[in-house]
């Protein structure tokens, strides 16, 4: 055999098997095999087993790109979050991936770090057909650039934090009720001087949690001056910094309701450094009930908003939109719950 013929023979041997090869080996038509592999037909058990055995024997892999193009989409969703180190967003991402996978979709993750240009860039994934749709989370104030851009896209569901002026499907928790329950718990356990440490004042979640905080004070007949509310970012660093400001006050609070577990955990770290005992000297309540809340010392009393449920519902709404683009838009709220652990004392 000549050298060129030998090389050609080796190339032919390495050629990837086709769907026709699978059909020939299983003794079935190409159309039947294709529909079976695409899960668009149900065949008798013995027939299906013949196809599965042929696929395994030949090492056949479907041409996913061709399949996606034939269906007119990428069969991929995108999830945009500010960060992934925060357990809240990682729990959400895991639920989105699982829900998407169950519906035959892949997931691409975009981490914006709250950078405006990165957020806008991720929206281009839809224009470039990298994804069929996006689940979008931001926790920064918007100067209307994001609002104006995101309104161009039907294939977006907004999670956790609102982008005012947009009309897409949205999935949030009951922020007012959750904050009310947190503050009410502190009042019922004997606390009277309660501070609130929260995020940027223009965010929906911040406004709603502050509303719940003030409502509990009004119902209990307690004062709630603006000087008891501290705004900055939803970060551990802010939690550490605000402790130093609070401890410099002439009168220390009995308790603090932090609008996120991340803030609360930063506070716990800094209070320990200043020999302030939680909950003996100061009680702390968080919001989110991330995995970290049960790992810190003391274990953190907090408000549970189910990040996984946000992800599951949001993914379902996005896939429904992709299947039926004329469906009505909706705002969905998921329940919160008080989770009592060790960071609140009875006074």
From TrEMBL:
SUPFAM superfamilies: lambda repressor-like DNA-binding domains (SSF47413), Periplasmic binding protein-like I (SSF53822). It holds the Pfam family Peripla_BP_3. The keyword Hydrolase does not apply. InterPro entries: HTH_LacI, LacI/GalR-like_sensor, Lambda_DNA-bd_dom_sf, Peripla_BP_I. Residues 17-71 form the HTH lacI-type domain. Keywords: DNA-binding, Transcription, Transcription regulation. CDD domains: HTH_LacI, PBP1_LacI_sugar_binding-like. One of its GO terms (molecular function) is DNA binding. PROSITE patterns: HTH_LACI_2. This is LacI family DNA-binding transcriptional regulator. It comes from Nguyenibacter vanlangensis. The lineage of its organism: Bacteria, Pseudomonadati, Pseudomonadota, Alphaproteobacteria, Acetobacterales.
